[in-house]
Amino acid sequence: MSFFGLGKLTGIGKQKQPNVPSSAAAKNQPPLFLRKNHALSHLVKGSFKGVVQLPKYTDLNEWLSINTFEFFNLVNMFYGVVTDFCTINGCPTMSAGPNTEYTWTDTQRKTIKLAAPQYIDYVLSQIQTTLDDERVFPTKIGADFPKDIRATLCVIYRHLFRILAHIYWSHYAELLNLKIEGHINSLFAHFISFVKEFDLLDRKDMAPMTDLIAFYEQQGIIVTNSSF
Question: Does the pLDDT of residue 100 top 50, yes or no?
């Protein structure tokens, strides 16, 4: 299920309209995405509760998988919108605000710091490989999901959240200039509603976006009663 008007986003990242100041430039001001007039811009009115709930007679793993594919495609597309602005020089670390910096663990289990575009490229490639793996996400009728599918999903959602958090903290001004803040806000509210509904992220994982999540909960946009 998608309501984002994806065709409108194609190629939009090439347009540079620097009329909105960056959040970093506005000292003693909240980030742009926390300003009420921006935060309340949405394509969907009301709660996402009904959108994320498991439909009757639907297998849980099938529902989780379908939504994971869609969230991956949407996050990938939104990153594509800002990719011209997310450069090694402009984003030398994979950060989400002043207090959060993510590192990459390589195949040798070494932790290394990467520029945001490098980190995100690695993450998206890794997730794509996982989604294409029939052993993890089977497509044949009668094939079972692996027993550790939930652990795999949690890793995917943790990485997708980090990309969204980076976009919000580092590239929200570009989204405002392109007038698509309603799109990213709706995606974020949908995403958080889903991970809360099915307990796919720990509270600590969502820390960089705690204030926006709390605001959306106060507004009744994010409403969950998870039983997982």
Answer: yes
